[in-house]
Design goal:
Elements (H helix, E strand, L loop, with lengths): L1 E5 L6 E6 L4 E4 L4 E4 L3 E7 L8 H6 L5 E7 L3 E5 L7 E14 L3 E5 L2 E5 L1 H8 L6 E13 L4 E6 L4 E5 L3 E5 L3 E8 L1 H7 L2 E8 L2 E6 L3 H11 L6
Length: 226
Amino acid sequence: MEYDVSYGPSFAQLTVDLDEGESVDAEPGAMVATSEGIAMETGTAGSGGLLGAAKSALGGESFFVNTFRAEQPGHVKFAPPLPGDVVAHELADETLYLQSGAFLAAESDVEVSSGLGGATSFFGTESLVLLELSGRGHAFFGSYGAVDRVEIAAGETYTVDTGHVVAFDETVSFSTRSIERGLKGKLFGGEGWVCDFTGPGTVWLQTRDFEALTARLAAELPTGGN
């Protein structure tokens, strides 16, 4: 399988080239186009497939998954729902934690499930949870805005607003806490939440916060009879 990410970091599109017999799994709605000879199957997520049933209940994602299988060499184009970038990450018998809305696609050998151990304590305060990607193969995830990859040294702590977290390595430990957001807090509701990451490992951040955007837009909309 080969891939290419184009038009980033603002309007990224992922193109996956498949040889005959190869397949890739993707979030429903992520497909832009396919070449001739690519068959698509839609099925429920379950044991042995992408996205366990717990993801539907706790991850805020679809219970269904689209599998694109090449009956002859061809390609599939994918795009995330929000304007931003796409990151390709190759797993090698390791685990990556992903903000649930960032998942785009993965090779069929990559297992994706709800990260139940950290879901409630990490993203529960903002109605978001973690996905746990494990195994071997390429995984692709999107962002709102550009992606900033931060390497954290062993013992170093790095603090991130939870609305900007996209993904992080299993080697990184974390804890969440509430903070006063100052002017931003006065505009958008008082307290915010940040995550303190402690290395070693990598954290992927997005340069924009979609919840902050929607809150700002909501504040500008007319109310009542205005």
